Each structure stands twice: as C-alpha cells, then as structure tokens.
Amino acid sequence: MLTVDFTRFPLAPGDRVLDLGCGAGRHAFECYRRGARVVALDRNAEEIREVATWFAAMAEEGEAPAGATATAMEGDALALPFPDESFDVVIISEVMEHIHDDKGVLAEMVRVLKPGGRIAVTVPRYGPEKVCWALSDAYHEVEGGHIRIYRATELLARIREAGLRPYGSHHAHGLHSPYWWLKCAFGVDNDKALPVRAYHKLLVWDIMKRPLATRLAERALDPLIGKSFVAYATKPHLPRAAAAEATTPADS
C-alpha cells in the first residue's frame, strides 16, 4: 500500500533514492522495482533486517531491472551518514509526526538532496488524526508515538522554511480512516472486536484485489477523510550569482 503517488512523483532509472524512516520498506521496494538505486534507512534494527531480507528476495526473483541497487541500513534521521547532495530523491513517509526536531530532520534531508532533486513528505492528516486522538489516548501516548498533528498549511510552511519549493499535494487512504476510528473506539490493542475484524478483512481484500468499486470509493473519500496528507517539493538550484559567491573565498 503506497502513500506516495509515483505518477505525481516520477522516478528515473538510476535515480539515487533515500527512503528515510523506511519502516517495513513499502516505498523502498517500489523504488527498487522502478530501477532506482535505493537506500532504505531506519533506526529500528529489526525492521532493517527484514527489509534487507526482502531486497535480497526481490533480487533473486528478478523483480528489479538491471542497474537497480538496494541497501538497508540503520541510521539517525537527525544525523544522516551521507555527504551533501548525495540523493536525487528523498521520501519520508509517516515519520515526521514522531520526531521532536522536525525542522532538524528537514534540514538533513535538504542537505543530502541534490539541487533540482525531489522530496515527498507524508504525515497523518489533521482531521482524521484529531478524531483518533479524541477517541483514544493509547493511540498516540506510547513510546515512539505521534507527538504532533500537522495542518497542511503548517507542514507546507515547514517545507518552504527548509528551502524547498512545494509543487503539489493530495490526500491518500480515505478507506483507512474509518478503520483507525474503529480501532480507537474499541481499543487500539483489541483486534477481536467484530467491527474491527470485519473492516480489516475489507482492507486486506482491497489491497490484494484492488477492485474498481473500492478504487472509486477511495478516490471519492480521499479529499474528505483521507488518512494521509502528501506533499511534494523540489530543492531549487542555487542562482548563478549566489553559487559564485558561495565558492569564492572570503576576503581576509
């Protein structure tokens, strides 16, 4: 289940991609299939081992084209172990709401992104997320849980302040908001409640089969109750005058 829409966020074969806070690796796997040179980074060692295992299985099955590469590694989003301007593309999906220093994370992403490079940021949408917080403290008051809820305008302002230029946005996963509301209402750890189990089966069926009916339903629901807000931005090239000034030694 992808949150980033690759029709709005195109990849070229050979693009160097950082999936920051990759989790289970869903976006990293898609980038690998599209021929990118992918680095999937997360601080969770167990998830990184699982992502590395899947990368190896994909390579063995020939799921990625020639030239594509994939690496899974542990790392700190606030101190990325890469030189400046290392990546053509950076994806950070459902991560920034967990991190206290979100400005620091954005600064690190901008640092490792090449001029002209593209970035995709996804976070839980304000309205559906507020409902979850209102229904259940346990939904967010856990170690490593959500510490803030972004309004779209706030996230876009953060992105601009970091020196990026937003060029598009949308909402995703309209079918998933009711599931999380049910989870919060019946208990986030209570997967046995009939409404929760029934809705989960619907979501699994939708993910596996992708029938036209649910695709149309989600397309209609996304603008209204889409669970995620997705923003796309580019890192502008430094103007020639500024670039020359930056590379000229200062007078002593």
TrEMBL record:
<dbReference type="InterPro" id="IPR029063">
    <property type="entry name" value="SAM-dependent_MTases_sf"/>
</dbReference>
<dbReference type="Pfam" id="PF08241">
    <property type="entry name" value="Methyltransf_11"/>
</dbReference>
<keyword id="KW-0489">Methyltransferase</keyword>
<feature type="domain" description="Methyltransferase type 11">
    <location>
        <begin position="18"/>
        <end position="120"/>
    </location>
</feature>
<dbReference type="GO" id="GO:0008757">
    <property type="term" value="F:S-adenosylmethionine-dependent methyltransferase activity"/>
</dbReference>
<dbReference type="InterPro" id="IPR050447">
    <property type="entry name" value="Erg6_SMT_methyltransf"/>
</dbReference>
<dbReference type="InterPro" id="IPR013216">
    <property type="entry name" value="Methyltransf_11"/>
</dbReference>
<dbReference type="GO" id="GO:0032259">
    <property type="term" value="P:methylation"/>
</dbReference>
<protein>
    <submittedName>
        <fullName>Methyltransferase</fullName>
    </submittedName>
</protein>
<keyword id="KW-0808">Transferase</keyword>
